[in-house]
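task queued by scheduler; priority normal; single chain, no ligands, no partner chains; default sampling; output format set to structure tokens
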Amino acid sequence: MTFALFFFFYPFIPESVRWQISKGRYKEAQATVKRVAKINKVKLTDDFFYQHNFYRTRETTNPERNHDPNLIDLFRTPVLRKRMIVLISVWMTNNLIFYGLHLSTGSFGVNIYLSFLISAVVEIVAMIICILVIERVGRRYSLIACLAISGIASCIAIFIPVGAAKTGVAMVGKFGIAGSWAIGLIYPFEILPIVTRSVGIGICSSASRVVAIATPLMLLLYDVWPPGPLVLQTIAALVTAALCLILPETRGKKLPETLEDGEMFGM
């Protein structure tokens, strides 16, 4: 039923102006801007579109726009390649720990219904705090902090016996990974060039789904080596947190549009 609402709202959702410009659809971009300005009751100046190069042609733009960038372009250059690998790692780690803790909630020795209630509240609080923090501290250090919190909490939980204390520490880990998910979702939108953004996010999403499918299998380690799942979560979180140092800070920065912009972004 929820998905059906998509078809209702689709006609009212404008296309991204940046994407239209990156594809050379300048007339469509102009129409979109006029529509948004009308809705917001903003009067555009006569030379607005000339000032923002809405009438330039494909021949005067970067040659890379003469073809549609694809998956290979994201891994062709060293900077984008490193950042894509880190983003994929972040999404995979987020799913590994999020679902690992989520599915393990009932095995920590506390009433399963109470545990799930606390878990849900923790996720909401983490999301709200991250919204406030990332605009002050920035994306990169906020993401690193969230992953570190989750990894340290998972490590501590290894040495705590089943009970309320173990559940409490696990909820701290859930807080960290929920925050990491909130930040990790917006990071690719700000790091990847517009022309390859949808492809890059698709890769990250696909990789994370594979991990989500495999996570229940990881939990079988509880029967063989009880600390196993938490050890894997600790390693994944701390290693990924270190890898995030490669990512640039995007707060307050002009977002990259072309592949060249993406390669030079944050340098």
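post-processing summary
- Residues 57-61 have pLDDT under 50 and may be disordered.
- The first helix runs from residue 4 to 9.
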